[in-house]
Amino acid sequence: MRQMLCLLIGRSYIIWCLAASVHAQLRKSYITESYLVAYNTLSWVLFVALTIQLHLWWQEERRPRAYAALGAPTIPNHDTSAARSVRAAVKKERSAPQEGSVMGSQVTVSAIMPTYNAMPYLKEAIDSVLAQTFTDWELIIVDDGSTDDTQALLAQYEDPRIRVFELEENHGRGKARNVALSFACGKYIAPCDADDISLPERFATEVAYLEKHREIHVVCTQMMEFQGDEPPQPRVLYPEDPAAIDRRFARGRMAITFGTAMIRSWCFDRFGPFCEDLRSAEDLEWCLRIRESCNFRVLPEFLYLYRYNAERKPLFKRWVANAPSNRYAVYRGRMLGKSADAVLSFDQFSRRWRTRIGVYTWDMLRFANYLLRSNRARRELK
Question: Which of 145, 155, 300, 342 makes the best surface tag, with the fewest CB within 10 Å?
């Protein structure tokens, strides 16, 4: 609070000094009086804006601070009553083919795949896991209340490494991923999306890197995007330098391709599962939660194909729809260490006027920057 007050006083002092300088120049008839009026008006607008911002900061600072940090292992692990309640939400498990020693012992990689009405693309996603050159894995698929023919498609797979769970209704990707985590027994966790494709060397490359670099907790690769029958091509290059990754997370931006990630499973035991309030951007919130305690790396290989605009929505509309979730993920990251009562729910946060203004101002500028970066990346890699 003291730093914020100093910042306000400093900016106000600079504005006052500039106004005084202009006034002195006016007395020497170097500029017109209309210019001074316009400048003073702008100065007062800035001063009022800063004052309002200080008032909003003050309201947030008055909230209680007795919060058990979200970054610490405050969320129960998989063996607690909270995890059992997650299991209770599962409607049924197609477990007959999986019973036995294969699933009873630990595997190296637990791939978790939530799916919701992704039947047209789901087969390609599952087959890409089956095609991995690294074979010591299990695939846990959670059908998040799909209303299409997802279950009929999943019933066709009899590989004992595939486990399927079904939720009664749609809860969102965060909850579906947490259900999969509660059943995972792998040394590493590999998130997989139901409409994307992992290239055959993905698991082998990432496992080998984590085995060699014990100090790294999350490793990812670059990805290419595709749509329909178009050939895959890079759209955005993610930073590979560790310092650049840290800087990007510090700005509240996603610094890794989470769909390509391989994560040490104990990270979820220590820092908790995904935020179930979020139907998107739950991966960003989790990364911001652990970023000060874990090390990230992005490998230069392109080992993941991201299906661009699988929902067939205009890019701008998808960006606007996801912007509140992204902002809430950053908000939760900044609220680490504060009491649970001080943390707004997603519905409360999304209704704030500051959130709505930010979505249609600053986030629109970010959207334009994203398009520029995408076009530049494609030109550089051609």
Answer: 300
> Rounded to whole angstroms, what are the CA distances from 162 to 127, 241, 266?
11, 35, 22
Query: Could you tell me the pLDDT band of residue 243, with boundaries at 50, 70 and 90?
Result: very high
List the strands of the sheet with 262-264, edge to edge.
Answer: 90-94, 162-167, 137-143, 107-115, 186-191, 262-264, 218-226, 296-307, 197-198
Rounded Cα distance, 136 and 206, in Å? 13
Residues 6+ apart with CB under 8 A from 304: 196, 197, 198, 199, 202, 221, 222, 223, 224, 257, 259, 260
Nearest Cα neighbor of 305 from 370, 228, 210 is 228
- Whether 319 contacts 210, CB under 8 Å: no
Summarize pLDDT for 192-209 with one digit per residue, the tens. 999 999 999 999 999 999
In angstroms, the CA 228 to CA 76 distance is 42
Token representation of residue 86: 């997650």
CA distance 360 to 320: 8
Tokens of 297: 């790396």
Write down the mean pLDDT value for the chain: 78
**Would you give the DSSP letter of residue 221?**
E
Q: What pTM, to 2 d.p., does this model score?
A: 0.72
Where do we find the tokens 């729910």? 345
CA distance 227 to 308: 5
**Paired tokens of 287:** 């990364």
Q: Are 341 and 62 in contact (CB under 8 A)?
A: no
What would the two tokens of residue 223 be?
A: 């990805």
Nearest to 294 by CA among 338, 264, 250, 333: 264
For residue 304, list its beta bridge partners: 198
The answer to whether the CB of 48 falls within 8 A of the CB of 8 is no
CA distance 55 to 47: 12
Q: Is 308 within 8 Å of 261 (Cβ atoms)?
A: no
Exposed/middle/buried for residue 114 (C-beta within 10 Å: 0-12, 13-18, 19+) = buried
**Where does residue 232 fall: left (phi above 0), alpha (psi -120 to 50 degrees), or beta otherwise?**
beta
Is-contact 118 310, C-beta < 8 A?
yes
